[in-house]
Write a structure and sequence with these properties.
38% helix, globular, Aspartate Aminotransferase, domain 2, 4-stranded antiparallel beta sheet, Aspartate Aminotransferase, domain 1, 2 domains, 7-stranded mixed beta sheet, single chain
Length: 384
């Protein structure tokens, strides 16, 4: 049987396409603001621990489908403390990264022809997976003045094929942090209609520790509605170890276990060991790195106040800045020119859903703030 490439209505991998426009990937002049990657390695203590554990023979075997018990217990304790709620280890399944967590949740909740409601701009891998599964994304319009989704608009999109509402906060690509009030409104809407509220909170460790992201885990019935997705990749610089998690109620978790067994079997064992170590030993290190990123967000906001700059900063937070470009042409052409002529590697807003051609995304986490003035200079040069 010949493969029909039209069966999968899915765009090309965005990061790979952007890199294909780079003329010299080894250029010392290239500023890479393309992918969300930590600028630092895991701390030496974690690397030492993991090296010794692997030399001792740990991490080489399958684990329980749901993940090792120490990690599920540590994460349940972490979530309960961070959100001032009640989460048990039995509520958690460890996955091969947060992307796999999302894919497994969609495979468990949806069939072809079903619908998921999500705000614009949206994370491109979410959009891609929905497309491969023939699940229809129903988009909430983007308001550049608030960068917040409208719950009343979402209410008007719900129909008999709707299976879930999806929020990513802090948002990828915009960096916007949705308010607890906004999140609660979406939770109540999902609960009212018997839908899942999928919350991808990969970047929640880059919110001020004094700021409660939301209070949903304090609700006695959170397991009936909330599906919390998390990643250890950014917070402990473990992107290559592919370790993420889902927290949800038992009916969904049982279905997720079936999907997990057919795909990854279990999350990488070594990554799970690293995540346990991080949760138990790296709280202060995590706060230090979070503070560095918060300062970087402040500095990039200040940089965009340059009087000669026609690019407009819409929002900035966690790893990202979302920018409105000043040109009549589409974002893809703008970004390609920035890459080819100015060696500024970034992504067009069109990768992040419909009606985003006025915008580009800069991932500033892996770029030191000493380069920000150069970034602004290159943007100004592109205006000429």
């Amino acid at each position: 049987m010949k493969f029909n490439p039209n069966v999968l209505d899915c765009a090309a991998a965005p990061i790979a396409e952007a890199w294909s426009w780079v003329r010299d990937p080894q250029s010392d002049n290239l500023i890479d603001m393309c992918q969300a990657v930590p600028a630092h390695l895991p701390p030496q203590s974690l690397r030492d621990y993991l090296g010794e554990a692997i030399k001792a023979g740990e991490g080489a075997t399958y684990t329980d489908i749901r993940g090792i018990v120490p990690l599920r217990e540590a994460l349940a304790e972490n979530i309960s403390a961070r959100y001032q709620g009640r989460v048990d280890s039995d509520d958690i399944l460890i996955t091969a990264g947060c992307n796999q967590a999302f894919c497994s949740v969609i495979d468990s909740l949806c069939q072809a022809g079903d619908e998921v409601i999500l705000p614009l701009p949206c994370y491109f891998n979410h959009q891609m997976w929905l497309s491969t599964r023939a699940v229809t994304p129903r988009y909430l319009s983007f308001n550049p003045d608030t960068a917040m989704p409208d719950v009343d608009e979402a209410r008007g999109l719900i129909n008999e094929r709707t299976r879930a509402l999806l929020l990513v906060t802090p948002n990828n690509p915009s960096g916007a942090i949705y308010s607890p009030e906004c999140i609660l409104q979406f939770f109540e809407l999902a609960r009212e209609h018997g839908l899942a509220l999928i919350m991808d909170e990969t970047y929640r460790d880059f919110i001020d520790i004094e700021q409660l992201p939301h209070g949903l885990f304090a609700s006695d019935d959170w397991r009936d509605t909330l599906v919390h997705l998390y990643s250890f990749s950014k917070v402990f610089s473990l992107t290559g170890f592919r370790t993420g998690a889902v927290a949800c109620g038992q009916p969904l978790l049982k279905q997720l276990s079936k999907v997990q067994d057919c795909t990854a079997i279990c999350a990488p064992h070594a990554g799970q060991l690293a995540a346990v170590y991080g949760l138990q030993n790296l709280h202060d290190w995590k706060l230090e790195k979070s503070a560095e990123l918060a300062q970087r967000a402040i500095l990039i906001r200040q940089a965009f106040a340059h009087p000669e700059l026609d690019y407009r900063l819409i929002s900035a937070g966690a790893y990202f800045a979302y920018i409105q470009h000043p040109f009549a042409e589409k974002a893809r052409a703008v970004v390609r020119r920035l890459i080819e002529e100015h060696e500024l590697l970034c992504l067009p807003g069109s990768y992040f859903g419909q009606d985003q051609d006025r915008f580009i995304r800069l991932a500033f986490a892996n770029v030191h703030e000493r380069h920000f003035n150069d970034v602004i200079a290159r943007l100004i040069a592109s205006q000429r």
